[in-house]
Amino acid sequence: MMQDELGALAAFVAVADAKSFTRAAGKLGTSQSALSHKIRRLEGRLGVKLLTRTTRSVAPTEAGYKLLKTLVPALEGIREELASLTDDVDAPSGTIRITTADHAAETLVWPVLKRVLRNHPNIAVELDVENGLVDIVTEGYNAGIRLGANVAKDMIAVPIGPPQRVVVVGSPAYLAERSEPVVPTDLAAHRCINRRLPTLGGSPAWEFAKDGRQVKVRTSGQLSTNRPELIVDAAVDGFGLALLLESQALSLVKTGVLVRVLEDWCPSLPGYHLYYPVSRQVTPAFRIVIDALRYEPSRMQPPGSSSG
Q1: For all residues of the chain together, what is the average pLDDT?
Q2: What is the model's pLDDT at position 89?
Q3: In which region does residue 191 sit, left (phi positive, over 0), alpha (psi from -120 to 50) or beta (all else)?
Q4: Cα(66)–Cα(47) distance, integer angstroms
Q5: How many Å from the N-terminal Cα to the C-terminal Cα in the chain?
Q6: What DSSP letter does each residue of 65-114 carry, written as one string?
Q7: What is the mean pLDDT of residues 30-34?
Q8: What gap in Å lies between CA 73 and CA 279, rounded to an integer?
Q9: Most confident of 22-26, 27-31, 117-121
Q10: pTM recorded for the entire structure
Q11: Domains plus CATH for the chain?
């Protein structure tokens, strides 16, 4: 009975994660009908509906979400414990799931991970690129990677890159048509390209600091997007001013394609950090990934020097 329950619970997590019976069945190596039957039996035993099924997708119900919050970390803990038992007799192995922002993935994470994967063939990494904030416990990730300011205080945070300064940039053609902003409030007279972060409620205010004074400015313009590369392209094409990390704009500033403004108001931010819950067991495979990504100034290139 207990074996059936554990199998059904693992199947429920797989379907919720895949948002599809078909994809989950393929991952589990079973049929869609058998998987659907197993979930229906689980719902019957529990007396609650766990999944809402439509012709296009599958999503957890309120009861399903509540179960996932307990179930995902519990199953992850079991997987990690089994992996650690294997690692005692074999080379470190297992799958490490990481959610990361795309800029960090391209400039910091993948250049390191490709060396890890070559040197440790028994370690696998699932790298999900998502610019919004993610609940790594509920979603079953081993770790997340975001700028340090966005990491929850109850997480263990490991720096994987240097501090990041923000910059405000625009094309020479755009700035030739209007007065250059001198203080952050001048941005009200400018078109600005906003970055959308739905998990933070939309487009956050632009934050500035100078001589201990902090200023937040709400900006507006024709374009807002969650894709940083589109923000860069729009700034180059003259659609307005953009707030970027210095490393995202450095090469374009050096070549004169973009021009910096408000330089004395642009602060430095804590760099990218890898973070994970205090309660998470660090398996040998996970430790290898953490140690490889850990920021050591002596071995890092300056921000923006990478071609990635």
Answers
A1: 85
A2: 52
A3: beta
A4: 14
A5: 52
A6: HHHHHHHHHHHHHHHHHHHHHHHTTSS--EEEEEEE-HHHIIIIIHHHHH
A7: 85
A8: 10
A9: 117-121
A10: 0.65
A11: 2-60 (1.10.10.10), 79-162+271-299 (3.40.190.10), 164-269 (3.40.190.290)
